[in-house]
Fold this sequence. Notes:
Elements: H1 7-27, H2 34-46, H3 50-73, H4 79-87, H5 94-123
Amino acid sequence: MTTFLTDQTKKINMLFLVIIILSFVSAYFLPWWVVAIVAFFAAFFIGKTSGQSFWSGFGAVFIVWTLLALFKSIPNDNMLAKRVAQLFQLPNWIWILLITALIGGLVSGMSALSGVLVKKAFKN
């Protein structure tokens, strides 16, 4: 019987899932910057390559922060997001959502990249 997923693909999926689950759970109880610590240690222990670690961290937190922002914004009809978008002269509140997710993704991606590079530095 053949498998469709290689070991490398499983590692990529595992890193992505670990970061997304731990970031989502920690976002309810801890400060925003905890996603950086989560991504760093997840990539340190699970990450294999720099690119894989960065994109897993970026994608996981981008999705988590988008969902969390929507969970908090939709019940109040996006009132605060609309006002902040007006303040920054953006066309609508979706831009605030995307900028928020982009910032979280970059923080987590760079942290995951740092984690795998520290792992490689100690390995040598």
